[in-house]
Amino acid sequence: MAEFEPKIVAFVCNWCTYAGADLTGTSRIKYASNVRIIRFPCTGRIDYMLLLKAFDEGADGIIVSGCHPNDCHYTSGNFHARRRWIMFRSLCDFTGINTERIKFSWVSAAEGAKWAAIVNATVTSIRELGPYTEYKKVAKYPEKEVTHG
Amino acid sequence: MSKIGVFVCHCGENISATVDCAKVAETAGNYDGVAFSVDYKYMCSDPGQNLIKSAIKEKGLTGVVVASCSPRMHEPTFRKACAEAGLNPFMCEMANLREHCSWVHEKGEATTEKAIDLVRILVEKVKYNHSLNEIKVPVTKTALVIGGGIAGIQASLDIANTGHKVILIEKDPSIGGHMSQLSETFPTLDCSQCILTPRMVEVAQHPNITLYTYAELESLEGFIGNFKAKIRRKSKSIDEKLCTGCGQCTTKCPVKKIPSEFNEGLGKRTAIYVPFPQAVPNKPVIDRINCTYYIKGKCKVCEIVCPTKAIRFDQEDQIMEVEVGAIVIATGFTVKQPDFFPEYGYGKYPDVITGLQFERLASASGPTLGEIRRPSDDKVPEKIVFLACAGSRDPAKGIPYCSKICCMYIAKHAMLYQHKVHGGKSYVFYMDIRAGGKQYEEFVRRAIEDDGVNYVRGRVSRIYEKNGKLIVNGVDTLLNAMPVEIEADMVVLATAGIANEGAEELAQKLHISYDPYKFFAEAHPKLKPVETNTAGIFLAGACQAPRDIPESVAMASGAAVKVAGLFSQDELTREPIIAVVNRQAPPVYSSCVGCFLCVSACPYQAIEKEEIKNRNGELIKLIAKVNPGLCQGCGTCVAFCRTKSIDIQGYTHEQMYTEVMALLNEY
Amino acid sequence: MVDLIKRAKELIETSVVKVLIGYEQGTANKTRALFVEKADDADRLIFDSRCVQNLAAYVTKKEVKEKGKMAIAATLPVMRSIIQLASEFQVNDNNLLVLGITPESKLIEFANLVEVETFVHKYEIEIDARNKEMLDKLEKMTQAERWKFWMDELSPCFKCYACRAACPMCYCSRCTVDFNQPQWIPVPSHELGNLEWHIMRAIHLTGRCIDCDACYNACPLSIPINLLTKKMLADAKEHFGAYQPSLKGDHLMSTYKPDDKENFIQ
Amino acid sequence: MTLGFYPGCSLKGSSREYSESVLAVSKAFDINLEEIKDWNCCGATAAHNMNKELSLALPARILSLAEKQGLTEIVVPCAACYSRLTVTKHELSKDATLKAAVTEANGLEYTGSVSVLNIVQFLDKYITPNLENRVVKPFDHKVACYYGCLLVRPHEILKFDREEDPQSLDVLMLKAGATPIDWAFKTECCGAGLSVSRTSSVGRLSGKIIGDAKDRGAVAVIVACPMCHSNLDMRRDAINSYLGEKIDIPVLYITQAIGLALGLDRKALGLQRHFVKVTV
Amino acid sequence: MSSDTHHSGIAGLGGEVLEHTEVKVSHCYQCGKCSAGCPLSEEMDYPPSVIMRMLQTGNPVLEDKVLRSFSIWVCLTCEMCFARCPMSIDIPKMMDFLREKSINEKKANPKAKEIVAFHKSFLDSIKFTGRLYEIGLFVDYKTRTLKILEDLALAPKMMKRGKLNIIPELIKDRSGIAAIFRKSNKKNKN
After folding, report:
1. Residues E93, E161: one domain?
2. Residues in E touching B105 (Cβ below 8 Å)
3. Least enclosed by CB within 10 Å: which of B330, B412, C123, D64?
4. A8-137 architecture in CATH?
5. Is residue D68 part of a domain?
């Protein structure tokens, strides 16, 4: 069987990380293709329930990324987001959800290389962790999909 | 039932080199609700757009997904095409197959699979898109220009000449910027002040320009067409209305030994001072850090001698608020101080100076009245060495990028030296000569061929002083790295051009992006060089990257046209990407329970309370309401609302939820 | 509780309030909510240590509100809930009068909610020792052990929503769990649906829950879901300082500090 | 107080006056320097020129022995040994494979817990705070403080002083009552490892150093490295023949100069062992 | 399938340098600051920046010249080039590697005979005694190079000043030292 290829969903803001990932492309920096980006206007828009939905539907890892503190296009969306992440991540940890599978980062529009590095590091660590079978099991995720490689 | 069209672009070979575009189109064609699917070489070209338009008309498409480059690049293009074909532009979405896929992954099945996923996500999203109408907002037809160097001056004049009002703020006591410090300008060798000062005067006299010097931006709120800026007018300690600029105070001020900023420390100034004789406005300010009165509580000589009684020791900073519709940032650059190169001895040896200091030495208005004399003993240097890249192209101690202007000004400096010091010998240590520009290469050749400047290809390792000479250790890399040692009288370092101190804070106040070097980021490196990512804020000159005078002026005029274009309309249309609170039929009216936690979460104070009354005018319910003029569409309230009563158009709950579902199913 | 009964009678008789919410003797040694609308009913009012139900849950109920101005016999947790509700614009001085019962079982009548707030702020919200111990125990477990703990605890939950009904903060007219477009929470009561429902609930209560344990007391299966909100309470304290409901409305989760600290964002 | 002490080979032979003066100054301040038992040569330039692993294994053995002896801080007066020990610590801390290989070759446990002090760091930490009170005969001369290569470079690893125009020795000499001159050859190489094999190169390189020091009026050169000392002192004939003049300014170890300022016995400081007579 | 970024291997000696020392020769942009600051560059056949250029070409003929050069032996590892290199290229580390390789491939420059001999004598001294035995080193070196007369005057002067030990200092664990030499040499030859 081929090496396990994790499914990774990235929730990113439009102004910093999405643009940063554009720069990764413009700079032709290569990174692992396991990640799929979903664009939000701002990290402040990212609903924590969507992260749980991603795990429900079979994601093995999640990246949440936006503008560095003070750099938010909307002034403070990322500050609000940060406070929510602090609490949400702690609650996940408390309920036993594997928080190593959710990577939070700040990637600015100028940090194309950082985006590639974040994706690669996430893919590597999730690959080591293996498929998120615990969650998939309770999500009654079809068995054949779990072993998909 | 949706009828969605999928248009997969090859982008020449940019996408098709690693993604099997035909397979992407074929797979998408089989999705539920997709009525048409095709791949094409250049979707953004005229025939490509026509392909979309005719498909919309012929197939009666209800939604369009263009799978090509980043939406940040071409979303407006394709939305406009859809609108032209009669489809609401907000029924068009883009899948980013280029920047997020083909350019960052190797050719292979996985890359094509990812491309297919990206298309599927958007196909599913577009099923939940709604027709939206653009929002109209009024435009305040006054521009704020920040920075009064040549770029800010040019931008202000150009905007003012189109008939619109301009507020120009400058942090120093005078406008003029770095250009006013320069002696001659390359490649024409015309005198910098001679071409600049008439412009400075024009700014001061223009009926459409309000000039505030010694003023800085305090904060900024609002959005394109409707900014509110707070400006701090630093106290000048004089009443400008009374001051006639007679100069009595500056002559009599007893504190005379302050290094002059304008002369780069090579000359001195007083505590109450006008930075240079041609300053605009030509009225003094008191430098409170050095003024005896502010240090010791007594002196007041200036107050005594002032014939119009204009001195105001107790004047305070003023904060004023202005409403503007557009902003041009022209805050320029600064030079990196070369003391991070201890091997060159700057700061230790007085005759090792920076390029900007040399400008002051060569300038007729400078401390030596234009004669090249070395600072230590006023002697005319018989041998002079210029070091290029003193900080530039030096990741270890300086900055990795090329400062761009140094090659030219070094050639100019060497040339000026040769013109002014007959029989003098000049050397330039360089790595490459970067003289791309009209008449630039010819200029450098003239320095070498006609003026006898010795160009040596190699970096200098160190400079030390011995018996009154500066020993310069270098090599000639064109001669097998043969050592070259020059006993020089003076050394000029071409220091790197870097972003201003405080550039980061300013960018944060303005909510614009900046690059890793803290230069402000343009919206697109090629096609939007003067725009920022924040609509209504434009860039001019060296605040964006090192720029020479012609480039700064060209950018300024470009930015001015953008502002004038904006001001040519009375109303602006804005993307309707805003939050809305749901409304339902009575007796519910809305699922909003009126807890108003969203009010404190909103960065724009865009959420208000709406009273719902019955026919008798009795209050039934209080619910939240979004002011569409103020909402900027960040969605912070959306993720926060417990009852999911607020949603954001374009990124609705259904759309985002669907994207996640579509992404992970059929993976 | 002579004072309370006497005062209740006065309030009703003088029509200062239309209804007073208090406790009465229920069946099988349990207490239940009593809505005093006639002066005579006030005689049924009781107050003792069994009265732990959070009566604040009723002040947002349409049926109660419709009767006119309310008075409530409020213990400390109820008063806290009321302040939180007031900060969320659900009650105000015009529609609610608070008859406070201090931790020493003394009756205080407050002129307005500002006075209630002042009183409430004298007492910090403290997680009780038994639950603190439980939190510690859970925190010491590995993530996998905690996962198993919650899967075991949550699997019997059949989403009766007694917790929601008992909670004064769950006054939303439409709960996210009832959504089907999109379906945020799976309908069937399997572990995952249950977990996500309780995570969602805990997040919605973060910064709002005043730790009255009404949810836990109401749960027919005694699932310790209050541990989730307690954990959030403890974390909020740790990260953002002591937490108190406040009329100022500076809600914990709708505000931020630019220097909020975290150690996990790369 | 007791600190670990790694003298290194030179201090046991051609530079024994350095060792003598270090011990004399330490004793004057009641500091006991405890030699690492059964220490070996650090391998010096030769090892890293010829064999990388050997060049790390030899210093690692020394550090392991120090650990075994329970020493947490060792004083390494020789700048070359200091450089090798510090570079080894750095290399082994960032490369676990290398660390494993070296530990295997040495057969000794290595944790990297010992901190290595060069002579200036040692003096700064334990002597300088009380130096000014103890000076009885201020070293009242113009001196040229010479740092050489290995005390300051590579800065990334050593993180000591600044690599251009360093100041630490100057500051120490100032406190000993001297007037340090500002000169141009503080960190230029003396020829070091080529002393024996290419004496002519040493004459030229060290010649520039001695020449500049003399031109700027120094009456003594202060060093902190036995290799620098042997080149500048023992190779004075080669230097003078390169310069074409006879320069007789002496070269003193920093500890000798400080020892003189403290009024210690000249013989105890080993001044009689120099080739160029110490007249100051 | 998905791939992490992989840098294409640089062929030739430059590639070996990268593998063993993490020094990327491609980073050099030939400014010459290393050569300008190198105290010994005038005694070198190829100054450091030229060595870098030769490695950049990937030309086997030039690479061979590098390994046979005198430059790599006259380099004193004074670290000046590294300290001032604008691209932070660790030339001294690279030089160590080139010397080791030059010896292993028996390409050491004939002019460097004395230098190599000195290093060998030095290491031999340590190998057998654990510490440097200066007289032994001199005698061994002189025998290797046959430069008997040079420095002959120095020894008695040193002796007089008590700077030379007649008897070598022997450490106890000499077998341990020998083992270090044996083990690191074995790996070296691979």
Report:
1. no
2. 2-3
3. C123
4. 3-Layer(aba) Sandwich (3.40)
5. yes
Report the neighbours of B using a cutoff of 3 or more CB pairs below 8 angstroms: A, C, D, E
pLDDT digits (tens, 9 = 90+) for C22-39: 999 888 888 899 999 988
- Contacts with D, E 139-178, CB within 8 Å: 141, 150-151, 154, 157-158, 161-165, 169, 171-173, 176-177
E12 vs chain D: nearest CA distance in angstroms? 20
Q: Of B517, C93, D106, B294, whose CA–CA distance to E176 is shortest?
A: D106
Whether chain D has a CB inside 8 Å of the CB on B483: the answer is no
* pLDDT (tens digit per residue) in B143-156: 999 999 999 999 99
* Number of H-type helices and E-type strands within chain D: 14, 8
Give domain status of residue D90, yes or no: yes
The closest CB to that of D154, out of E79, E172, E183, belongs to E79
Domain range list for chain A: 8-137
Domain boundaries, chain C: 2-120, 129-244
Which structural domain, as residue segments, surrounds residue D71? 2-119
Question: Whole domain around residue E13: which residue ranges?
Answer: 3-108
Give the tokens for residue E183.
């083990």
- The span from the CA of D37 to the CA of D39, in Å, is 6
| E16 and E104 together in one domain | yes
Report the residue of chain B nearest A15, measured CA to CA.
Answer: B533
pTM, two decimal places: 0.77
C-alpha C83/C-alpha C79 separation (Å) is: 6
- Nearest partner of B9 among B72, B65, B79, judged by Cα: B65
Instruction: State the pLDDT at residue E186.
Output: 58
| Cβ-based contacts of E141 with chain D (< 8 Å) | 196-197
Q: Does one domain contain both D193 and D263? A: yes
User: Does residue D146 share a domain with residue D107?
Assistant: no
Name the band, by pLDDT with cuts 50, 70 and 90, for residue A144: very low
Q: Is C253 on the interface with A (CB under 8 A)?
A: yes
Widest Cα–Cα separation across chain D: 54
DSSP line for B290-326 = T-HHHHHS---HHHHH-TT--B-TT---EEEEEEESE
In CATH, what number is assigned to the domain containing residue E83? 1.10.1060.10
Can you give the pLDDT at residue E7?
40
A2 interaction partners in chain E (CB closer than 8 Å): 1
Tokens of B211: 């000039």
Residues D153 and D261 in one domain: yes
Inter-chain touch C251–B596, beta carbons under 8 Å: no
Query: Nearest-CA neighbor of B395 among C47, E85, C187?
Result: E85
Query: Does E5 lie at the interface with A, CB-CB under 8 angstroms?
Result: yes
Q: Give E-chain residues touching B496 at CB under 8 angstroms.
A: none
- The ipTM is 0.72
Contact A94, C146 (CB under 8 A): yes
Per-residue pLDDT of C227-260, as tens digits, reads 999 999 999 998 888 788 998 877 888 888 888 8
- E interface test, pick of B340, B387, B459, B462 with most E CB neighbours within 10 Å: B459
Question: Do E73 and E109 form a contact (C-beta atoms < 8 A)?
Answer: yes
> Measured between beta carbons, which residues in chain E are less than 8 angstroms from residue A3?
1
Count the domains in chain E: 2
Q: Among C150, C151, C199, which would you mutate to test the A interface (most chain A Cβ atoms within 10 Å of its Cβ)?
A: C199
Q: Is E167 on the interface with A (CB under 8 A)?
A: no
Chosen from E33, E109, E131 to mutate, greatest number of chain D CBs within 10 A: E131
pLDDT in tens, D185-219: 999 999 877 766 777 888 999 999 999 999 999 99
List per-residue pLDDT tens for chain E, 190 residues long: 343 333 445 778 999 999 999 999 999 999 999 999 999 998 999 999 999 999 999 999 999 999 999 999 999 889 999 999 999 999 999 999 999 999 999 999 998 888 888 888 888 888 888 888 777 777 777 777 766 666 667 777 887 887 777 777 778 888 888 888 888 765 444 3
Q: E7 and E91: one domain?
A: yes
User: H-type helices in B421-573, by residue range?
Assistant: 440-449, 503-510, 549-567
